[in-house]
Amino acid sequence: MKRSAWAAAASGWLVxxxxxxxxxxxxxPTLWLPEPVKDLAAVRVxxxxxxxxxxxxxxxxxxxxxxxxxxHICWTATSAEKxxxxxxxxxxLPNCEAAGDKSFAPDKPAQFTAQMPATLLSGPSxxxxxxxxLRNHAGKTAGPSNPAWVAxxxxxxxxxxxxxxxxxxxxxxxxxxxxxQAGMVLRIxxxxxxxxxxxxxxxxxxxxxxxxxxxxxxxxxxDPGQALDHDAALDHTWRYTVERVHRVELSGHxxxxxxxxxxxxxxxxxxxxxxxxxxxxxxxxxxxAHALDLSWTPDTEPDLVGYVVYRRDVTAGSxxxxxxxxxxxxxxxxxxxxxxxxxxxAYSVSAVDRDGNESDRSADVEEGLPQ
Length: 371
Known about the structure:
By secondary structure, the chain is mainly β. It is built from one helix and 23 strands. A hairpin with a 4-residue loop joins strand 17 and strand 18.
């Protein structure tokens, strides 16, 4: 009787438990393994390797990571004949030389600078793959990142004695040249530091000049030691840095090794250069209007604002005077009605830009109004 009562009670207890809403079997706890890095990139500058990547947000179990995550950085070298295969997640990185360890916040950009090992700074260039391996608190990992490749060997020499000066055509850069080398380029980085005023009409087709631009010069045959930056508009302040970059293809990878950048050079590129002297000046008589009509070939400078017309009365022996008024003439023509019949006049024209720079006068052209 007691056994039957106990069995009935136990059965009722089981019924109650079954009604508590348990969804299924209990799940094992997460291992807190961060997802592997997928976007590792590497840049070599001098003897340093600059690594950049994005930290994952979740674990491999899709649980949001909390707190800084440990990262192990390492590298593996390869020969030209047999590239090193990417390690499998199950094996980790057993043959990867350590480059450093650091912790990084999840779901944020991360960067790390590693020194190129001394054994890789000389001899023929080889391809080296860098990896980032994220580890949990127990030192376990879900696998390495994608490989980021760089080239070993001697880095290009730094650019020395960089100088900049303004010219009418743009900014002239000069530096100490070096011996040419196959696959070498000079990389010029230009940055807009300040913009004193609105850009001139005509600068880069009426638009402000780009705030940052990179230019390159091939150095595989010669190092000219100078270059003209046509795109740098005058009346702006620019900062330049220059570096030599060696490009090479190793183990199927197009790689670069950059030398140390030059010291930055800043130039306030003030426009003090006048426009070209107007050409093709012609003077014809307009007897009906009792005037002398002037015309000339228009200048093509983008910052041109107009022209100034000068006249000298040859018959009266008077001095040269400005007859076009205080404001420059915009069209390439001028009508002079303030002339006396029977007098000959010598005319010349100059051009003026937005900064007030005035060109030399054109050659004199004489003409007179008949009696």
